[in-house]
């Protein structure tokens, strides 16, 4: 049986994968919640990724990139440095737009899943044959589900990082493919993932001008 946290994460992930993803700045401007990116101590490139909306057109979550754009080009895996922030609105339990079901509330597990699946999307084992890649993807997706559903488990540690200057607790895990963070603020659930940039040196803040990020 699915736990509530997994159901909440799954609801978010389905929306993230849907056709309503919006890569332009418009989607960010329509959100009813603040976006979070790396704070002013980061001076590198910033770029837009995508937002995702529910069936009724409400912006639910989105991602912002920092550094190099992630690539599945295996020759670049050891040299590209990036960090992606994931902002997810706090959503209570509610009826679906068509009235046929109920959407679970979003949670820290939800944003942990979004961040974990984001890291998975830019990972590709160099030595794997094409015929095995789908099996590998399904296996890693299942692992990401389990990890997001058990934030108190051994797969995670605690890491405190500044958010708008305030020390904030995050759930943190790392693997050979990169790292994932998941936490929350008073207004949103906040996640991040990356590779080549140390998570321990990062800070987050509300994005004051989304146009500082470029496609």
UniProtKB/TrEMBL annotation:
Residues 66-75 have a biased composition (Basic and acidic residues). Residues 1-21, 55-75 are annotated as: Disordered. This is Uncharacterized protein.
């Amino acid at each position: 049986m699915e736990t509530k946290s997994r159901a909440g994460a799954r609801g978010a992930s389905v929306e993230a994968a849907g056709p309503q993803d919006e890569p332009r700045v418009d989607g960010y401007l329509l959100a009813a919640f603040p976006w979070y990116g790396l704070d002013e101590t980061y001076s590198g490139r910033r770029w837009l990724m995508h937002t995702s909306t529910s069936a009724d057109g409400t912006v639910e979550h989105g991602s912002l990139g920092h550094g190099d754009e992630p690539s599945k080009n295996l020759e670049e895996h050891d040299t590209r440095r990036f960090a992606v922030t994931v902002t997810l609105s706090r959503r209570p339990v509610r009826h679906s737009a068509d009235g046929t079901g109920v959407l679970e509330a979003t949670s820290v597990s939800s944003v942990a899943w979004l961040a974990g699946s984001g890291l998975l999307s830019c990972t590709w084992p160099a030595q794997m044959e094409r015929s095995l890649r789908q099996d590998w993807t399904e296996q890693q997706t299942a692992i990401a589900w389990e990890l997001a559903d058990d934030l108190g488990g051994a797969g995670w540690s605690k890491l405190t990082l500044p958010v708008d200057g305030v020390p904030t607790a995050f759930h943190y895990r790392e693997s050979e493919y990169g790292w994932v963070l998941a936490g929350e603020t008073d207004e949103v659930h906040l996640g991040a993932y990356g590779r080549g940039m140390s998570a321990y040196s990062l800070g987050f803040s509300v994005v004051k001008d989304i146009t500082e990020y470029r496609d």
